[in-house]
Amino acid sequence: MVPRNTVLPRHIGIIMDGNGRWASKRGLPRSAGHAKGADVFRDICRYCEQLGIEALTTYAFSTENWTRSKDEVDSIMNILRRYLKDAFGLEGETIRVRFIGRRDRLAPDILDLMNEIEEGSKDNPGLILNIAVDYGGRDEIVSAAKRAAVLLRDGEIKEEDITEELIDSYTFTSCCPPLDLLLRPSGEQRISNFMLWQCAYAEFVYMDVLWPDFTRKDLDAAIEEFGRRNRRFGGR
Question: Is domain 11-136+179-228 given the CATH code 3.40.1180.10 in the classification?
């Protein structure tokens, strides 16, 4: 557990990376890495709730992940189905679950499960958990810009009304506090099209641990590092 006087981020984003490499290191199929990573995801969600984090956004499946082999994509979707069917094991808890990203390319049964979980948890008072499925940061910005363009075309707003605040209100995380901490395990040091709009003043922490090996202690370390940062927001 992080020390009591540590400044906590209100909103954490996590790129859950390294599942395939974790499996390969052990001579296992990549699907085994995704399954283990899903178990870690569930535990970290619960831990964020215990810590009092207000919002957690996790990168589960990107718009680019469709280019992976059909077997791997099918495996990821089947794991997603499994966890959706037991509501990620979070039923009866206070976590509010939301799914962000495109929905036009997902299977109907997955969409039905996602809608059921969102509806069932929408009034929960605890952690807001955003699960990014078929999500891309550029795609999100384009979607927000299109919404503003329609309003402009229909005369509902003027050009001067298109502000950062308006675009922000059309992002998938508009109901959440600003992103404070962007965390990426696996040793990679890039954001891979994740929360491009939201990460403008987020603190980045990269960690040399594959996601299936990620623990609560690793999250503690990232939060403690966040607490040591001097966040100036360009002011000085």
Answer: yes
User: pLDDT digits over 91-107, tens only?
Assistant: 557 899 999 999 999 99
Active site residue 65: yes
Place of tokens 């491009």: 196
Clarify whether 218 is annotated catalytic.
no
Catalytic one among 17, 134, 180, 218?
17
Catalytic residue among 5, 19, 39, 65: 65
pTM of the entire predicted model: 0.92
